[in-house]
Amino acid sequence: MNKKDTLYQIEKQLFRCAEMNDSKSTIALEDLRTDRWIHLLRQFEYNRENAVLLSALNDRLIQAAKQLYSRMQDTQKRMNMVFPPNADCYVSGNIYLKNDLPARYPDQSEHARKVWEALMTDNCCLEGGIGWTLSFNLGDEGLNYPTLMDYLGMEDENDSWNEHLDREWSQPLHLVNIFHNLFSHCELAIQDLIYIDDFYIQIEMIEQEDVKIAPLNL
Q: According to the lineage, what is the superkingdom (predicted)?
């Protein structure tokens, strides 16, 4: 069986497991996601074209993080005008990945859509957001979370979150830790990630006493 056929069989099993939706299939789903990720990583070509595509993805992730910071700062100002200091609630925010197959993805077939849906199904690394959750207590003066560069894991400008990749090839890309989360923990292949461009920011107010969560549309 050639590499293309092997991938097809892995993916076919993958979306069949996702459709079953039981505890046994969930475990199998994780294993098949790993098998697919390893298979595609072995096929990945370390060339200039892919470096450009991966760099563009990294830039999109940085822009999403900047939007999160801007939205959180704006929300804090607005909420502190309404709520008294030491109110028993806090606001949290994160970046999320939309579940739909990216419009830029070169294969828009039914098979590809089912595979993408299976990659998103019960993927706990995606459910809580793709970056670190930022939060502040109402009434706080200033921000009590990391700087943007710390959030991106770029305390040192020469850092690159390039685990599992060829170091010499990927070091100049200065990949941020959101990429690391998607690639190493969510097990989305680079061949998937380079086409992702649809992120959204979700900010919620959480009442600590009753643990009530309310989305904020600010």
A: Bacteria
